[in-house]
Amino acid sequence: MTRANRHIPFERLHNFRDLGGYTTEDGRAIRPGRVFRADSLSKLDGEDWDRFLTLGIRTVIDLRYPWEIEAKGRVPEHPSLTYHNRSIEHRPYDQAALAPSVDAGPYLAARYLEVAEDGTKEIRETLELIATAGDGGPVVFHCASGKDRTGLIAALVLSLLGVPEQTIIEDFTLTGRATPHLVADWRAANPNRPLTWPAYGTAPAEVMTGFLSALKSRHGSIQSYVTKTLGLDHTFTNALRAALLAPPLTFREATEDDLPTLVRLRDEAAHWQLAHGIDQWKPGQLGEPHFRTRLQEGEVWLTLLDDQVAGAWELWWDDPAAWGPQPPTAAYIHRLMTDHRVAPPGTGRLMLAEAERRISLSGRPLSRLDCLSTNPRLRAYYQAAGYTVAGEQPTKSTGMGTPYAVTLLEKRLR
């Protein structure tokens, strides 16, 4: 998975993130704008405060000790906000004063396990508050730096929602983007103290890997810990998923009746590309005859969210314009497009996975596609989905204008 920048920019907050858009093992996505993680909201003022209010957050869960709140303050009071203090950590420790020889991975993993065992009451109450986000509006939970106590709660929430463990670890490490700011803030607040621990403010993957491994070793699974130790059964987990997960996407093969919809999707995608500086698709370039041909010679699939069309793609059984003559060992994905007004984050990746599943069902072991050679961002997107560069085609021609160069990518399917 790529290290996408999920941080929401503030002047004084450095680690404010939306958990929305992460996808689950069963192909669903966390609703954007429903659950946030953050560093201390006591720093909110001025334009930062105005920006925070625009997010529509209704519930703030402060994971810090009461003495931290007394010393540093809390989120400003506002009629739209309900504030809760749930101090999940019971054994304070001073990371800044640790010796340089202390290894962040095993040390912090052990501290997280202590919190998971000591703070069961507060952790349970925190999870219950987050589960009410479906009815009560968006929720944010935070500690001081948004890394340790916040990271533990985020890991539990993401795990219960069914997000893959590697994604949970990746989410934890994203604090690394805020580390220089967290260190600078500490030095500014402690001008007469030395910062002896070089790992202060860092979030190496080994920390979360070690914590999750230890929690599962001791309790059997994250769900078992939540059920047996926290007293929250599968009914709670189902309620959490109902509150925070978008409805599942479904797929169906397009028919003649869908031709106007396909033309609309393609034209809107072309306008979006042009607006973002990508000169590849042109509005009005493909009409119903094109999609009718694709229905006859291959497959065209629609992606649905409830009853709304969220996207579509074409599946070809050969592609001589880009790949030349080939044996029947691959299928070719084209025109992967989404409706940005309907599709939740992660829809493109889910459509790609469904297209690959269709290719596997056909008995062909290779999925292939191409992208404009001058679009490295799109190439990186496909590489993050497991595709490798197979070559370059400098003069691809579709009969609709000047030939252009494309990068060829392929993925071997299981």
Account of the 3D structure:
The structure is a single chain. This protein has two domains: 17-244, Protein-Tyrosine Phosphatase, Chain A (Alpha-Beta Complex), CATH 3.90.190.10; 249-412, Gcn5-related N-acetyltransferase (GNAT) (Aminopeptidase). It is an alpha/beta fold. It has helices at 46-54, 66-72, 104-118, 120-131, 133-136, 149-161, 165-173, 179-189, 205-219, 222-229, 234-244, 259-275, 288-297, 320-323, 347-361, 376-384; strands at 17-18, 35-38, 59-62, 82-85, 139-142, 249-253, 299-305, 308-316, 330-338, 366-372, 388-396, 404-412. The longest helix has 17 residues, at 259-275. Helix content is 41%, strand content 18%. The protein is elongated. The strands form two sheets. Strands 6-7-8-9-10-12-11 form a seven-stranded mixed beta sheet, with helices on both faces. It starts with 16 loop residues before the first strand and ends with a strand.
Short description:
This protein is α/β, with parallel strands linked by helices. The chain folds into 2 domains: 17-244, Alpha-Beta Complex (Protein-Tyrosine Phosphatase, Chain A); 249-412, Aminopeptidase (3-Layer(aba) Sandwich), CATH 3.40.630. Helix content is 41%, strand content 18%.
Question: How are the strands of the largest sheet arranged?
Answer: 6-7-8-9-10-12-11
CATH class of the largest domain: Alpha Beta
Largest sheet: 7 strands, mixed
- Which architecture of the largest domain does the CATH hierarchy give at level 2? Alpha-Beta Complex
Head-to-tail CA distance between termini: 19 Å
Fourth CATH level, the homologous superfamily of the largest domain: Protein tyrosine phosphatase superfamily
Overall, the morphology is elongated
Mean pLDDT: 93
Cα-based radius of gyration, to the nearest Å: 24 Å
Low-confidence stretches: none
Tell me the series of helices and strands, N- to C-terminal: EEHEHEHHHEHHHHHHEHHEEHEHEHEE
- Number of distinct beta strands: 12
Helix and strand content put the structural class at alpha/beta
Contiguous helical run count: 16
Tally of individual domains: 2
Q: Percent range for helical residues?
A: 40-55%
- CATH names the topology of the largest domain as Protein-Tyrosine Phosphatase, Chain A
Percent of sequence in beta strands = 15-25%
